[in-house]
Amino acid sequence: MKFQLSEKTRFDRDLMFRTHRDDLDKLVPYMTMVERVRAEGKEVHADGTQVLTHRWLCTREAVPAMIRPMIPPNMLVWVGRATWNPNTFQCSWDIDIPGLEQAVTIHGVHTYHEDPKGTRVELAGNFAVHPEKIPNLPPMISGPMVTAFEKFTTQVIIGVMKATHRAVVSYLEDQKR
């Protein structure tokens, strides 16, 4: 399931890009949907590109109340690998959910654009479930149920992306005070 999001801010592109890339741990207090983010890896390439790996833990409150009992704790954890290219102001990323690495595909790209009044951040991504790769999944759990799960999860992903953008903005506003 494809998704898109566009957010604007008054802060300049370079500052938005660097803050999102370099200060992720400082943004967590601004994200109510996220309990913690832990850095797990960093590669720096000669062209300035950085590949960062983080383990995220979502709060139970991020999941709609009516389905919380059905969501196991391992579904609240994901590992994000992001490639930050300062030359193009793009961040391409992939997410793995431990235990479901082969069963779901989650990837996307953030692009930071200069805007006359600051920055416009465009996000394009895709989330797909591959039920045939889930061991012991009953055959009746497919089709509409998979589509419903994709829609739900896509909304959670978009919510976390919006929350992350708002966290960057709030953090920068607090830094200006």
Give, in order, the helices and strands: EHHEEEEEEH
- Helix fraction, binned, reads 25-40%
Q: Biggest β-sheet, characterized?
A: 7 strands, antiparallel
The average pLDDT score comes to 87
Low-confidence blocks of residues = none
User: What radius of gyration results from the CA coordinates?
Assistant: 17 Å
What would the principal axes of the Cα set say about the shape? globular
Measured by DSSP, the beta-strand proportion falls in 35-45%
Classification by helices and strands: alpha+beta
* Intertermini distance: 40 Å
How many β-strands, per DSSP? Answer: 7
What topology, given as strand order, has the largest sheet? 1-7-6-5-4-3-2
Count of individual helical segments:
3
Per-chain topology:
Elements: E1 2-9, H1 13-22, H2 24-27, E2 34-44, E3 50-58, E4 77-85, E5 90-96, E6 104-115, E7 118-129, H3 144-176
Antiparallel strand pairs: 1-7, 2-3, 3-4, 4-5, 5-6, 6-7
Mind explaining what this structure looks like?
This protein has three helices and seven strands, in the order βααββββββα. The protein starts with a strand and ends with a helix. Strands 1-7-6-5-4-3-2 form a seven-stranded antiparallel beta sheet, covered by helices on one side. Strand 4 (77-85) and strand 5 (90-96) form a beta hairpin. It is of the alpha+beta class. It is globular, with a radius of gyration of 17 Å.
Please give a handful of descriptors for the protein shown.
single chain, 177 residues, 3 helices, alpha+beta, seven-stranded antiparallel beta sheet
